[in-house]
Amino acid sequence: MRTGSQDTGGAALPPAGDILALIATGFWRWDNATGLVTLDAEAARLLGLPAEPVTLTEAGVRSRFHPVDWNEIHGIVNLAVAEGTLAEARLRIMDEQGQVIRTVRSRSKPVLAGDIAGQYELIGTLQEVNDPLPGSPARTPVTGDWRRSREAFLLDAGRALAEARSTAEVLRVAAGLSMPGFEPDGLAVFGVRGDRLTIIGHHGQQPGDEGPFTEMSLATDYPAADVVRHGRAVYLSSPAEYKHRYPATWPLAERFRRESWAFLPLTVAGRTIGAWMAAFRYPVQFTPDERSVLTTVARMLAQALSRAGIAESERELTDGLQRSMLPTLGPDIPGLALAARYVPTGGGLQVGGDWYDMIPLPGGRRIALVIGDVQGHDVRAAGLMGQLRIALRAYAAEGHRPDAVLARASRFLTGITDSHTYGSTGGPESRTGAAGGTADPRFATCLYVEADPTTGVLEIARAGHPDPVVRIGDGTVVVRPTEGGLPLGIDPDADYPTTRVVLERGETMMLCTDGLIETGGHDLDSGWGRLRKVLERYGGDNLEQLADELVQAVHGPTSHYSTGPLADRREDDIAVVLLCRAAVEEGGAAGTGTAPPRLRRFLLTVQQAEPERIAGARQQLRELLHDWTQPEQVDSAVLMVSEMLTNVLVHTDGDALLLVEAQGEVGERRLRVEVADGSDELPHKRHPGELASSGRGLVLMELLAEAWGVTPRGEGKSIWFELHESPAP
């Protein structure tokens, strides 16, 4: 006789599928990436389908299994995938009326799909077993390898609870837990407040059902109160047992028509913080294995609730601290409209160093607007921000000019940050952190604006902060270059020159911290471009809406900027202040509001020591004329401005003052550019040779300008030219 692979008389072995069919074993394949399950004829028959090969969706196959078994097989498969072993289970097959028609034994092997995490194929067999498990579809003992499925369930539950970041998320996870072999119909989480038992959350009951259990005394003869008092679980396997042990509160539980209950303590660091109830519509005997699962879930639930509670308390505390440091913008200011927003950074304690402020100045006619950013996103940054804000208010209230306010603030910040590099004995310590001292020097950027609401004149001093942006009445958006100095806290003797800007009627100025510009991976240029689109769309009628849209352009819409999923994506704090000068003078006739004047203008000073600002002037001019119908005229204007400013710096000892005005309707505008200086020497037309390096300024103006001239002034002179726009072809 020959065996194994030896000769069998010339007859070949039948195909594997035929062999499986001979021994009443079906073959199936499940692709979890596509959610499709392929069955051979025998597997289809065992599932109560016609005996022919078929491909079904996951939902189609799921309807053939008992729901308890289906939930269990997921845990078994996940454990087999993690361990690289076979998944084995017994499964009850149900007909369309919900009756169990047979029990099958499944053995399957997960095959990973390459390197793609979480994707695999499950290849296995189904075979009918003749020892059906006792019980009804409503309640049967645990099937399959219960211990393996329990481990998989606990791993999944622990991961889900560990990722929950709020009490509401923890309760959602707890409500969605599907325990292996037995599934509660109702859940409730009780907390402790003083000597009272409170309901934190519940699932499986109707809204309002928690009423009788809210604010219950811990002395009440109720299972959850008993658990909190003694720290021991209470298991009630039947209504009769519940009624016998807790007759006083049985009427409260009777109306829910449950058959079994488990009340478990929620314990953290040896202290019971509440209780967890799991209620069942079918009898549960609470075997040692079942109690082990419930106890483990209760421990994980207690840890998750404790973490969530601490995190929520920290967020509430720090958010309140941060917002208490930020001022309101105060009463309405005649002729000016103000709006502001503050958005703390995501993660951690959600505190940072960004702030804004509005300060009434002595005399009552002017106000100061301040926006700044202290380095860092921690409690120390928030503390320094509060101190610096108070110092700025004090210096402004003393009547100092903007440059003096920032100079004093810089000395103040340098002093309080340097004090952290000294030890407890008073001597200087290493800035790397010696005993008794903290080496943590900080700096801050700041923009200080002194505004006259009547005239629209703004005096601006800047300490390393982004320049302000102005939206002109016709929708043109330009960056206003301003004089600047070092950030506060770096050099106690730093100088902060001021820049005078006139905010015309109908114009809006935006002050912001760099978080509004650079969040989302943007640099200064691309960030400004993103905000420019929002400002250009603004209709000029609702400043609060514009503030919301600017923040939404960075983070997307949200009703509360300091919490929720958006907080996770924040990269930096955001502060933004909007200042708009009314288009119509206060006290005008009602109903006669005129449109903002068709006037664009900007004023810029180029000092002898800052020739690089000529490039900024050219850029400002191009931004102002962004929609000019004749691009060659824009090029001509830029060339002439460059020549005029350069001549002042080369041929005089003073600074150049540039004034640009474009007025009129599109296609009919008149551009007037004027450069003034303090020299009385008038320019003379020259005839430079081909190799000459200068002397062409007036020649260019004569060739390119519609009109030009030189006007003497009280001190010095001004040179001007005009260009007239023509309608576009």
Automatic annotation (TrEMBL):
CDD domains assigned: HATPase_RsbW-like (cd16936)
Keyword tags: Hydrolase
Ranges annotated as spanning the membrane: none
Signal peptide limits: none
InterPro entries: Bact_Sigma-Reg, GAF, GAF-like_dom_sf, HATPase_C_sf, HATPase_dom, PPM-type-like_dom_sf, PPM-type_phosphatase-like_dom
Residue ranges of domain PPM-type phosphatase in the record: 333-581
PANTHER family in the record: STAGE II SPORULATION PROTEIN E, STAGE II SPORULATION PROTEIN E-RELATED
Protein name: SpoIIE family protein phosphatase
